[in-house]
Design brief:
With 303 residues, the chain is α+β, with helices and mostly antiparallel strands. It has eight helices and four strands, in the order βαααααααββαβ.
C-alpha cells in the first residue's frame, strides 16, 4: 500500500486594499460625527443625542476591530499558525454580530420602560442632528457597499452602518411627529422597531461565523455531489474521510482519502481530482491522500 498527497495551494490574500481604505474612511467619518453628536447633545441638553452618540461609539469600535482583524489576516503564516490569521476576520465578525444583538436587546429593554413613562424630547435639535446622521450613514454605506461582499468581517461593518442608517430614518420620522403632535411615546416605539429590525440579518451573520469556526461544510458545497464526482474519476474505486470546511469567508478547503486501482498512475488520479475540485467546485486548497489497491476485473467497483 502506498500513499501520496496532492496539495493545491492558491494564494490566500487578505482583505483587498479597497476594503481597508473603505474601512478607514468610514471610521474617520463616524468618529467625527460621534464627537459632533456628543457636543450637540451637551449644548442642547438632549440625552437622546448623547445616547445616539453611544450607538456611534459602537460603530467606531466595530470598525476599529474590523481594521485590526484585516491587519491580522494579512500577517504571514507561521509554525504555530500554519493557515495564517484569516480566522481573525471571522472572530471580529462574530464579536460585531454579538455586539449588535446585545445593542438590540438594550434598545428593547429601554424602550419597554419609556413607552409607559415617556420623557421630554427636544425634537428640534433631534431632527437636525438625525438628518445629518442620515447623510453620514448613507455616505458610509455607499463607501462600504462595494467591499461588503469581500468577507464576513466587512459584511459585519456594513451591517453596523446599516443599523445606524435605519435608526436615523426612524429618528427623523419620530422627531417630526413629536414636533407636530407632542406625542413623545413615539420615540421608544420607534426604538423598539429598530431593535427588532436589526435582529434577523445579524442572527444570520452570527450563525455563519459559528458554522465556520465549527468547520462546518460550506453551504455552497453539496457533499454528496462532490463525493460522486470524485468517485467518477477513472481509477478511483473508493473514497473516505472526505472533509470540506472554510478557513475564512470565501476561502474553502478540502481533504480526502482516495482508493485507486494499482494499475492506474497515482499522479494522474491526483491531478484529475485536483482539477475537478478547482474547476467544478471552486476548491483551490485540496489535500488528497491516495492508497493503491489490487483490483480484479471481476470486482464491481473496478468497472
Amino acid at each position: 500500500m502506498s500513499s501520496h498527497h496532492a496539495h493545491d495551494h492558491s494564494h490566500f490574500g487578505s482583505l483587498a486594499k479597497s476594503g481597508k481604505k473603505a474601512l478607514i474612511t468610514v471610521l474617520a467619518i463616524s468618529a467625527f460625527y460621534m464627537v459632533a453628536e456628543v457636543v450637540a447633545g451637551m449644548l442642547t441638553g438632549s440625552l437622546a443625542l448623547i445616547a445616539d452618540a453611544g450607538h456611534m461609539l459602537g460603530d467606531v469600535a466595530a470598525l476599529t476591530l474590523a481594521l485590526l482583524a484585516a491587519w491580522f489576516a494579512s500577517r504571514p503564516a507561521s509554525k504555530s499558525n500554519t493557515y495564517g490569521y484569516f480566522r481573525s476576520e471571522i472572530l471580529a465578525a462574530l464579536l460585531n454580530g454579538m455586539a449588535l444583538l446585545a445593542l438590540s436587546g438594550f434598545i428593547l429593554y429601554k424602550a419597554s420602560f419609556r413607552i409607559f413613562s415617556p420623557t421630554e424630547v427636544l425634537s428640534g435639535p433631534m431632527l437636525v442632528v438625525a438628518i445629518l446622521g442620515l447623510g453620514v450613514n448613507l455616505l458610509a454605506m455607499r463607501i462600504l457597499a462595494p467591499a461588503s461582499g469581500q468577507s464576513l468581517n466587512m459584511k459585519a461593518a456594513y451591517l453596523e452602518v446599516l443599523a445606524d442608517m435605519l435608526g436615523s430614518v426612524a429618528v427623523i420620522g419620530a422627531s417630526i411627529l413629536i414636533m407636530l403632535t407632542g406625542w413623545t411615546a413615539i420615540d421608544p416605539i420607534v426604538s423598539a422597531v429598530i431593535g427588532l429590525a436589526i435582529v434577523p440579518r445579524t442572527w444570520l451573520l452570527v450563525k455563519q461565523c459559528v458554522h465556520i469556526l465549527m468547520e462546518g461544510t460550506p453551504s455552497r458545497i453539496e457533499l454528496d455531489e462532490l463525493r460522486s464526482a470524485i468517485l467518477a474519476v477513472p481509477g478511483v474505486v473508493d473514497l473516505h474521510d472526505l472533509h470540506v470546511w472554510s478557513i475564512t469567508s470565501r476561502r474553502d478547503a478540502m481533504s480526502a482519502h482516495a482508493v485507486i486501482v494499482r494499475s492506474v498512475a497515482a499522479e494522474q488520479v491526483l491531478t484529475a481530482i485536483t482539477d475537478l475540485a478547482r474547476e467544478r467546485f471552486d476548491l483551490h486548497h485540496t489535500t488528497i491522500q491516495v492508497e493503491s489497491r489490487e483490483c480484479s476485473v471481476s470486482q464491481e467497483a473496478c468497472h
